Amino acid sequence: MMLRTRKARLFKEGKFALAKAKYDKVLREFNHVNPQDDEEGKEFANTSNLLNMNVAACYLKMGDCRKSVKTCNKVLEANPVHVKALYCRGMAYMETGDFEEARRDFKRMMSIDKSSEVNAKAALLKLKQTEQAFRIPLGAIGCYIVAKFTPVNTNGRTGGTYF
After folding, report:
1. Parallel, antiparallel, or unpaired for β 144-146 and 135-137?
2. For residues 156 and 80, what is the distance between their CA atoms, to the nearest angstrom?
3. Is 148 helix (H, G, I), strand (E, B) or coil?
4. Class in CATH terms, 2-146
5. Which H or E run includes 132?
6. In this structure, which long-range contacts are made by residues 146-151, counting pairs with CB atoms below 8 Å and at least 24 apart in sequence?
7. N or C: which end of the chain has fewer CB within 10 A?
8. Taking Cα atoms as reference points, which of 34, 80, 29 lies closest to residue 51?
9. How far is the C-alpha of 132 from the C-alpha of 50, rounded, in Å?
10. Contact at 8 Å (CB) between 123 and 60?
């Protein structure tokens, strides 16, 4: 329990990279565990999901949204109705400009767990505001485009989409 509190403290202090490193260390140790029965296996899976969610949250806070999505996907593969994984992945999608993916995750949250409705609706409102901020009017034709910025590296290759 002491270790869990320390990692949470690091996260709350904004030391996301250090907290992530601690969570990763525990996850690596989990790779060597073989649950003895179904009950132990269930507890193992829940703990692994919790650790992966903490890693995903660290990635999100560090601005590495693609890794956050990938880590949330691990959790959702193990538990497709993990509401916190849907929320975190939706927030990461929103940050990368994948608005439809974000919307789908937030709506799925509400269909899975009615108690998540407040958080999902708040996220959908933030999503709507973010989308509107990236709409650029095209003058007289009355249309909009959604702006995405794709950086080009010094070698001429494009990187990921960022805002």
Report:
1. antiparallel
2. 39
3. coil
4. mainly alpha
5. helix 117-133
6. 146/97, 146/99, 148/97
7. N
8. 29
9. 34
10. no
pTM (two decimals) = 0.78
Query: Hey, where are the domains in the chain?
Result: 2-146
3-state SS assignment for residue 15 = coil
Report residue 93 as tokens.
Answer: 């999608």
| DSSP-derived secondary structure for 72-91 | HHHHHHH-TT-HHHHHHHHH
pLDDT (tens digit per residue) in 7-58: 788 988 999 999 999 999 999 988 787 877 888 888 888 999 999 999 999 9
Here the tokens at position 139 are 């003058």
Around 64, how many Cα atoms within 13 Å sit in the side-chain half-sphere?
14
Question: How many other C-beta atoms can be found within 10 angstroms of the C-beta atom of residue 136?
Answer: 10
How far apart CA 76 and CA 93 sit, in angstroms, is 15
